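TASK: fixed-backbone design
INPUT:
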């Protein structure tokens, strides 16, 4: 059955037939407001009603704000930074400087907001992470502060400012009693200036203290910083597997368990292999993958017998590997 075509519309009285009707030109869209870009010949405000500043005028505005900070007039500095940011809202340095000014007048929430904005605008800029870490520390969010410092060191492992900031934040945190003896040992071993070692130690302390989310951020930052020691990397893999397990992320946890096992095999560390196989066995069992669970527990028991580890040899999970 053919589908009938709809009837053609008839022109209304006094209207022009469609074929003779002149086409209306589409209306031009309104011109967008100028986007503020630092370094251009002129820096425009977002509102067309406000004047634009020349580059020289903008630079002078920034100079005045920095001078006010230098003179200790932080309220005036903030007003001037506000005006500068109104014409260049993508300037991460201005947000960082205003964050520092807010810190000086103890407006820590605003300081944190500006630090985060600076970091989002330039994720590779270490100073933004430092500002964020300091603000979080003053807000009493010690675990998050340590995570911010560690993330900054992942961007710039050579930043002494971030390393010192992280150590100071750790020593002012509730973890000081447990962390201080370890840090003193690092000083004796001349490892207290090693970003990887300091960050990984702090990450494992966060894990022990139950700050699992922050520990993941810190420990993964340690891996980004890197180390030549395969054994140290293995310890971070092991800690990350525990952290993700506590967070309920079994996929991530299992992945790090496998990396921990690979490192132990490479190093010929049978104790590490035994531990990793036991962890993998438990992980696979929880996921319902009983074949892999039994395989790993069987390896665990064989290694335990070689190591004459009676505690593991007689554990119910290890014995289940033979069933």
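OUTPUT:
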């Amino acid at each position: 059955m053919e589908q009938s075509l709809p009837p053609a519309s008839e022109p209304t009285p006094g209207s022009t037939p469609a074929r003779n009707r002149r086409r209306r030109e589409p209306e031009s869209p309104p011109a967008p407001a100028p986007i503020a870009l630092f370094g251009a010949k002129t820096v425009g405000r977002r509102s067309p009603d406000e004047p634009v500043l020349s580059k020289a005028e903008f630079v002078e505005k920034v100079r005045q704000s920095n001078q006010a900070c230098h003179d200790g007039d932080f309220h005036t500095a903030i007003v001037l930074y506000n005006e500068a940011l109104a014409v260049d809202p993508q300037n991460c340095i201005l947000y960082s400087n205003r964050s520092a000014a807010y810190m000086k007048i103890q407006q820590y929430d605003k300081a944190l907001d500006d630090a985060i904005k600076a970091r989002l605008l330039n994720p590779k800029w270490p100073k933004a992470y430092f500002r964020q870490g300091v603000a979080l520390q003053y807000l009493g969010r010690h675990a998050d502060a340590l995570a911010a410092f560690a993330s900054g060191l992942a961007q710039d492992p050579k930043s002494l400012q971030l390393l010192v900031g992280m150590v100071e934040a750790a020593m002012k945190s509730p973890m000081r009693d447990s962390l201080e003896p370890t840090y003193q040992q690092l000083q004796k071993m001349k490892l207290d200036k090693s970003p990887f070692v300091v960050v990984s130690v702090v990450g494992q302390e966060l894990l022990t203290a139950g700050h699992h989310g922050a520990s993941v951020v810190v420990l993964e930052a340690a891996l980004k910083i890197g180390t030549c020691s395969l054994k140290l990397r293995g310890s971070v893999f092991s800690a990350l597997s525990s952290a993700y397990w506590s967070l309920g992320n079994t996929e991530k946890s299992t992945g790090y368990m496998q990396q921990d096992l690979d490192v132990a095999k490479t190093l010929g560390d049978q104790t590490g292999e035994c531990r990793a196989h036991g962890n993998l066995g438990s992980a696979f069992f929880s996921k319902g993958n009983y074949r892999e669970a039994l395989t790993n527990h069987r390896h665990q028991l064989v290694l335990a017998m070689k190591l004459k580890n009676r505690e593991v040899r007689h554990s119910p999970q290890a014995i289940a590997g033979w069933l």
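COMMENT: Residues 1-46, 316-323 have pLDDT under 50 and may be disordered.
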